[in-house]
Amino acid sequence: MATERSFVLFKPDAVQRRLVGELYSRFERRGLKIVGLKMLSVTKELAARHYEEHLSKPFYPLLEDFITAGPVVALVVEGPQAISVVRTMLGSTNGREAAPGTIRGDYGISRQMNLVHGSDGPEAAAREIAIYFSENELVDYEPTLGGWVCADDEK
Fold it and tell me: Rounded to an integer, what distance in angstroms lies between the CA atom of residue 2 and that of residue 21?
């Protein structure tokens, strides 16, 4: 089982609703290791880099307005199959359709204001991590409780 890194972004609605601590703790409690963390404001240029595949789509201006409307919190998480674990934790993109127990199912009722972005695959994770973090901003460490999160053959 491969240890992966995934990019996670707490969007402006999560910050404004003061959910950052609650959401962060869910990733920690799940057993994911946080290896990068920062708060920032997304500029139009940064939004264009992050969402480059959507630039020509009709909804992009609304997406840009939303993601640049307030501060965000970016993090990099690490763990066995971290990308799919994060995606499962987030739930369906539309909060009205997300299952209870997922982040969007517990805290959201919107498609656009869906609180958290998570990478959708290994290539996206690598690209998004590089957009938001330099290599020296990521910390590699062994948590003292690591052996109690999953078995050695699952790492």
Answer: 28
Give the C-alpha separation, 70 to 67, whole Å.
7
Domain regions of the chain by residue span: 3-139
HSE-up of 142 (CA within 13 Å, CB side)? 5
| Residue among 15, 60, 23 nearest 40 (CA) | 15
CATH class, 3-139 region: alpha beta
At position 121, the amino acid (one-letter code) is G
Identify the DSSP state of 99. P
How does pLDDT run across 5-51, given as a tens digit for each residue? Answer: 999 999 999 999 999 999 999 999 999 999 999 999 999 999 999 99
Q: What is the pTM of this model?
A: 0.94
Supply the residues annotated as catalytic.
117
Q: How far apart are CA 146 and CA 144, in angstroms?
A: 6
